[in-house]
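Q: I'm writing up a methods section and want to include an example of the input and output format. Could you take the sequence below and give the corresponding predicted structure tokens, formatted cleanly so I can copy it straight into the document?
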Amino acid sequence: MSQPSIPKGTRDFTPLEMARRNYIFDTIRSVFRLYGYLPIETPAMENLSTLMGKYGEEGDKLLFKVLNSGDFLSGVDDNALQSRDNAGILRKISEKGLRYDLTVPFARFVVQRRNELVFPFKRYQIQPVWRADRPQKGRYREFYQCDVDVIGSPSLLYEVELIRITDEIFRRLGIKIQIKLNNRKILSGIAEIIGEAGRIIDITVAIDKLDKIGLDGVNKELNEKGLSEEAISKLQPILHLQGSNREKLNQLSQILSSSEIGLKGIAEITAVLDYLDVLEVESPVELDLTLARGLNYYTGAILEVKAANVQMGSISGGGRYDDLTGIFGLPDVSGVGISFGADRIYDVLNELNLFPADTEQSTQVLLINFGNEEEKASLKFMALLQKNGICAELYPDAAKMKKQFGYADSRKIPFTVMIGSNEAASGNYQLKNMITGEQEILSPEAIIQKLNSI
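A: Here is the clean output for your methods example:
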């Protein structure tokens, strides 16, 4: 019989891994709540009509489609099968798909519940998403996103708030980061002044790959997409702008002086940087004109976060979308959000050895089992420990002491309590520190006080 397995790009999580993941989720959630965001959840599956066309051509290819129940081929014409009309067949056999991200389902949620919500509506969502991508380091087919969005206001104060949230989360996690910032309007202005205003999608998809395929690769892709040599040539100095954020903006203002939309993007970036100047944001914020994040729905600010000391793709990213709800029948509702990739953050923390030691610990006290009447006294004291917020468990049988202590060591349980016949009679119990080996006889109340003070 072959060994059982799981699909490539998915993972099981051990108790230790879950404890560490929960440390990440709890840290992120606490910051989201600090800024007044409210939790929601949406289904793992959405109708394909909700998902398709929202992520660009490449994104659509990465959607996991779910076969219709029952005889899914019954509605497919034989000619379509013989001609291998994949698109036509897909429409007949699949009406649902696993969500690709949390933003599009959120837009659908807002439209469906617009009469129940108070705008601006601030929500956070921590759930898995699925992408039919090629698995590699830091890239999985099933992974968790931690999203925070506000919808119903065009205010740039929310871009500033998201940068502050990002800075605070990674400060608490101990990860040094760099926040990259751009604006889709600037990219539109660039496309306009190089004479390719109608090719904004092709341009952004290509330059967003600059870190992966290099400048020559980007230029080759633009050429293959049909951009003229003149347009590609005009693009080069823009991609090579140097200097501080303000210096780049000054140069860009001259380059885009004839583009109304480009100048508007510059004004928005400038306003965000002005706000940040009066706030304490520890992480560096860099204007990066190659940042495009090839999602079609972004219309303004674009954000991306990279860890400073690890070779890893982005660990967080997002941006402004002015009319995502419009595709579902609710036009002109501006939103902005950012997503934190929990799995990549986990890998960064693991590589840098930044997880706190106590994330591994669940049980604080193991009660040694002596059997018979002593077992009942141990059960009673275990209940008292738990009532006082101390995680405790009783070994399940009266095994040899060496085995019970070995279990505590293997589980990294820092304390054991021994209630033998003498302890049960006296009402004072033995507390052993499994790390130092120190043992002392204490009253139940003293044990609880000691453990709660650690």
